[in-house]
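Hi everyone, sorry if this is the wrong subforum. Our group has a chain we'd like a structural model of before ordering constructs, and none of us has done structure prediction before. Sequence below.
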Amino acid sequence: MRKLSEQELDQVKRSIAFKDLTSAEILIEVYDHYISHLESFEELDFEAQLFELEQKFRYGYCHALQAKFNKETRKDLGKLHWQVIQRNFCLPRILYALGFMSVAFYLGSTVESGKEAAILMFSPLIILAMFHLYFLISSSLRIKTIKRSLNQKSSLKSSLLYPLSERMYLPMMMSYSIVWISDMMFATEIISNLAPQIATTFSILFFIYMISILEVWKIKSKTTLL
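Answer:
Right subforum, don't worry. Here is the predicted structure as tokens:
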């Protein structure tokens, strides 16, 4: 097995660049396949073998692979997230649920104003938003390195970027909905008195959700381009 020359590597990179792939994982997979295949042939066979690869990995074929990978990635992420949540709420930990309600109503009784309740509910979301910013910057830096090394000019991102980002946005969207509904529901005195406990309950739920997202990211970051 030989090493490809710089000119040959540049030719491979140009061939792959014309496919306009946006998934960093698929781009690297195709590139690695090209390199490993071509390195198994002599230099005189390079052009012929590159032509064969181009015949197999056509534009439409590569984009079909990308679409299938993106779909499977979103599905696998959902399964992993659900498994993480299940591990946190499995039967041996059923006592956590009882403790959760006790803590929520105890903390809620110490909240004296609606402003304090709002801060309590939004605090885990602020932490999650800060982590999401770190996640975007970290992923962007890794993708820039890949684009530079493979001479890619088109838009490139990890296939996990959007699915994981959506799961980070979910609690934020829910919180805005909760606040909007609360303005209408907390008009009566009985419900208004329960508002701090409800805010504390959602705060703890958001913290649990945030921890599950961080665990999913930690698992996926070991094997993906996040």
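For your construct planning: The chain has one domain: 6-220. The first helix runs from residue 6 to 17.
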